[in-house]
Structure formats: structure tokens, C-alpha cells
Design goal:
The chain is mostly helical. It is built from 7 helices and 2 strands; from the N terminus they run ββααααααα.
Length: 111
């Protein structure tokens, strides 16, 4: 069964309005993270990310797949255009060996 939203979007009944709202919040967080990543120095980012548990990051990434991102209103093609190989290199520089794993997972998510 599909639901027609007031916006004209069609959404399956397994995907609730709350999921859509959550997607909008996640999209804003993602945009802020990309902006911060592009504008801050590796040292500043290391301070911010150094306190994060990379295992938690990987577990959170496992919750998403390209279809879920699309349902949440996140344009994967737009992300591909905004995230460069240089960004992945910067991520690896900041997080070290864990950065390699996270970068690979991000690349596979954006395929």
C-alpha cells in the first residue's frame, strides 16, 4: 500500500511521516557536518572527532542504506558531488586506521 502525501510525494505505508521528519533532521545534521569538514582544519576536526567512538560511528552507519537515505530525502548524487577524494583523505588523516574503515564504508554507501 502507498500513501499520497499533501506534498504530492508517494510513500509506502512502512515509511511513516515521523521517518520523513527524522530524515529532514538527519539531512540538516549531514549538511552541517559536511560544511564543518570542509571549513575546519584537520587539527580542529581531530579535537571534535577524537572524542568520538569510531565503533559507534560504524554502527550508526550500518543503520543506513541508499534506499533509506533516499526515503529520508537525502540526495545521494548531491552528496557524491560534494564529497571528494580529498575529503576522504582528510578523514583518514584525522581518524587514522579507523578513518580508512569509515571512508570505505562511506564510499560504498554513496555508490
Amino acid at each position: 500500500m502507498q500513501i499520497l502525501l499533501l506534498t504530492g510525494d508517494v510513500m509506502s505505508d512502512s515509511y511513516s511521516v515521523f521517518d520523513k521528519l527524522g530524515g529532514q533532521i538527519q539531512k540538516k545534521k549531514l549538511e552541517k557536518a559536511i560544511e564543518m569538514f570542509k571549513n575546519e582544519s584537520p587539527q580542529e576536526l581531530r579535537k571534535r572527532l577524537g572524542q568520538m567512538n569510531t565503533q559507534e560511528i560504524l554502527e550508526k552507519m550500518d543503520e543506513y542504506d541508499p534506499n533509506k537515505l533516499r526515503q529520508m530525502g537525502i540526495n545521494i548524487d548531491e552528496l557524491k558531488g560534494r564529497i571528494t577524494d580529498r575529503d576522504f583523505e582528510k578523514l583518514i588523516q584525522i581518524l587514522g586506521p579507523d578513518g580508512v574503515v569509515i571512508a570505505k564504508k562511506l564510499k560504498s554507501l554513496l555508490k
